[in-house]
Amino acid sequence: MAPSSIPIKSHVSKTIQFPQAAQRSKTKRSPLPQVKKRNVPINTRQSGNSEARMLISTRVRKSPYWHLSQQEGCWAYTVYNHMYHPRAYISMMQGGLMKEYEYLTNHVTMWNVAVERQIRVKGPDAADFVNLLITRDVHKRLPVNMCRYVILCNQEGGIINDPVLLRVAEDEFWFSISDSDVALWAQGVNAFAGYDVTIQEIDVAPVQIQGPKSVKLMTKLFGRKVMNIPYYGLLHAKLGRLNVVISRTGFSGEVGYEIYLRDATRHADEMWNAIKKAGEQFNLRVIAPSHIRRLEAGILSYGQDMDIETNPYEVGLGWQVEFSKGDFIGKAALQEIKRKGVQQKLVGLVMGGSPITWYNEDFWHVTTRYGDQVGYVSSAFWSPTHNTNIALAMVPVAYAKIGTSLKVTLPAEDAPVKAKVVPVPFKDPHKEIPKQSFRKTAA
Hints:
By secondary structure, the chain is α+β, with helices and mostly antiparallel strands. The chain has helices at 66-71, 96-106, 126-133, 138-141, 182-193, 214-222, 264-279, 291-296, 331-340, 439-442; strands at residues 76-80, 83-88, 108-112, 118-122, 146-149, 152-153, 159-161, 164-169, 172-176, 198-201, 204-210, 234-239, 242-247, 256-262, 284-286, 344-351, 365-367, 373-383, 388-396, 405-408, 417-422. The chain is built from ten helices and 21 strands. Strands 12-13-14-11-3-15 form a six-stranded mixed beta sheet, with helices on both faces. The chain has a six-stranded antiparallel beta barrel with strand order 16-19-18-17-20-21. The radius of gyration is 22 Å and the shape is globular.
């Protein structure tokens, strides 16, 4: 059976059985805390998967690596940053996403992440303008040839984007963006702010090289200087005649790098094929970005775990907000949010049920032991590390304490499964795996 025709086992294979009111305790209880009111509510209808085919057309951009992902057998896509984004290569019959996780955690993998569109801010005022957009202090935190995970907020404190920000030169920054239109936001801000900068998307497309053997592959491709790149460091390099920027970053929680190819539309095939050839001896496999491993690492997915109606304090990103710096967009609102506190928090859950081996198609309901819905699951997968299902869920602060017992309504189960609030990240909380040093080896 061809990969494109392999049926996906949906988590809606059984009818959801909601608890009956008669089964609840007759003890009088206080009104339930609820997650905050949104302008556009989270759609928590349990509508499940669909047999509909994704339309491939010129309305959504194909990345420079689209045809190469097709050649590697990619059979499932989503749309991310107005581009087609690979989400599965290995067929379900051959192990699916769990097999891809195995390659990632034992060998080395390459990911097509061209959807991380690069928005360049360049000019004499670049640092000051970037500092206006982000909540961290660019002058203190980001020297040349380093990068940082940052967030941009709007005037109400809502998160607009959570990119990796690269400082490739004194007067040049690249926002390697998550799933929202940072270029439009930045251009709109500067239409009134008037900084001496240019803001535009550039023809740079990254791939990620992730996994324990990534340093060996990267050393083979670029030489031993790669081993001296610090965690979140940058290196300007060449692969043959191709100009690239390398960062010691990734979306996996494993040792990893990203290779940003300049003039990517022209040179995509040449770089991709060179990496594949060099990777043969290390058992390199092209896979989708591993949402199993990123979930274990506690890495958030924009549009899924947070969006423009969530603020940093609700999703564990309060550490990103530096009030000691000068003014930035959202500063006053975030100060007020911090003073008042939040109504809801994103928490980690371990939960029962059969292994979740595909992306959750809905925001599954989180309930109390009485069956009252109080929140929703935003991301969930089976964790090979913990041998159980894990999840991120938005719940009222009254239910966010570590050890709190809850239930989750999984569509594939006959009854809600038990769940417990646990710390996030689920694995390697101090990031010892991705930030390990290789400099001694290079000496």
